[in-house]
Amino acid sequence: MCHQSPVPAGRFAPSPTGLLHFGSLIAAMGSYLQARSSGARWLLRIEDTDPPREMPGAAAAILRTLQTYGFRHDGDVLYQSRRARHYDAALQQLARAGLLYACDCSRKQIREAAARTAYPAAYPGTCRERGLPLDGPYALRLRLPRDAAVSLQDGIQGLYRQNVREACGDFVLKRRDGLYAYQLAVVVDDGLCGISDVVRGADLLDNTPRQILLQQALGLPTPRYWHLPLIVNGDGEKLSKQTYAAPLDDNPLPQLQQAWCSLGQRKAATAGAQTVAAFWDLALQHWQMQRIPPGPLPQPDSADLNHPPPQV
Ligand code: GLU
Questions:
Q1: Which residue, 312, 300, 166, 157, is CA-closest to 233?
Q2: How far is the centre of ligand 1, averaged over its atoms, from the C-alpha of 90 (Å)?
Q3: Contact yes or no for 237/243 (Cβ under 8 A)
Q4: Distant-in-sequence contacts of 307-311, Cβ < 8 A, 24+ apart
Q5: Residue 302 above 80 pLDDT?
């Protein structure tokens, strides 16, 4: 369970579609140090809303790795797969407000219809006024407000603007196959858990305007956002399971030191740490959020990951 509390909170929210890699460590460390250095709680949430994409055993492996790397979360781990009633309650609230509609368009129909509009990446609103039943075998979409232009001041990436109507259109909150969309689950959980600071990878920056509009539709507060630099491989691709990013190994110190440096922090500040606990003590003393670069950043050499960096 998860309770709102007046104490500020951050979170780390991995999807168990693969094991944690260096890019995940950046997100975990950035959110952890932002929370801990400001006296906030740090919550852990497993985003297991998409069973077909899940890797068996990944959730347990992620929790073990976080433990090995010295992360200590507050409260119980939240599993999104157990929170359907909260997502349904949010959908019902939107339905009562007339902000939800059902859609039976196929991907192909959407592509073809959108190609004939000025915004080919956006859902063109085909089913907006059709009045299909909300309890049928259909996807459920959010009815965007007329003015769907969002500006946000990100703590690392600066001013970011997006007109959600032009970029995505009315977006899906529940899929036709019955799975809850990431946008819905993340907004409901951040809202119900009182998350005040969202610190995560910059690959999610372009999702944030959708999440802000959904927060507004549900009457939830908008947290502060900090989108961390993306870590890219030699081909300029984001580290992920799809790009065969190496899983974090059981030798945390070198990788913690590397992640610290990738986050723009002074290498010398933690270089003397001989244990994971000593690393976190020093990291907390010396953490400076304003030093984080916007990125993207190259993945450190694997050679560096296998040997502790020289002490300076
Ligand atoms: N579950 C997402 C991921 O693993 C992160 C979602 C978020 O931080 O909002 O990329």
A1: 300
A2: 20
A3: yes
A4: 307/254, 308/253, 308/254, 308/257, 309/254, 309/257, 309/258, 309/261, 309/267, 309/271, 310/271, 311/271, 311/272
A5: no
State residue 303's pLDDT score: 43
DSSP summary character for residue 288: -
The best mutation among 43, 182, 205, 225 to test binding of ligand 1, ranked by most ligand atoms within 8 Å of the C-beta, falls on: 182
pLDDT at position 300 is 87
Question: Is 171 among the domain residues?
Answer: yes
Residue 273 maps to a domain: no
Question: Is residue 183 within 8 Å of 177, Cβ to Cβ?
Answer: no
Q: Domains in the chain: how many in total?
A: 1
Q: Is 250 helix (H, G, I), strand (E, B) or coil?
A: coil
Residue 28 has pLDDT above 60, yes or no: yes
The CATH number of the domain holding residue 158 is 3.40.50.620
What is the tens place of the pLDDT at every residue in 265-274?
999 999 999 9
pLDDT for 128-146, tens place per residue?
999 999 999 999 999 999 9
Q: From the CB of 50, is ligand 1 less than 6 Å away?
A: no
Q: Select from 186, 187, 228 the residue to mutate for testing ligand 1; criterion: most ligand atoms less than 8 Å from CB.
A: 186
Cβ of residue 24 lying under 6 Å from some atom of ligand 1: no
Answer whether 247's CB lies under 8 Å from 221's CB: no
User: The tokens of 309 are what?
Assistant: 């960096």
Whether 299 is in a domain gets the answer no
Residue with tokens 């019955």: 178
Q: Which of 9, 1, 11, 14 is nearest to 63 (CA)?
A: 14
CB-ligand 1 contact for 19 (6 Å cutoff)? no
Looking at the DSSP bridge assignments, the partners of residue 224 are 197
The pLDDT value given to residue 307: 44
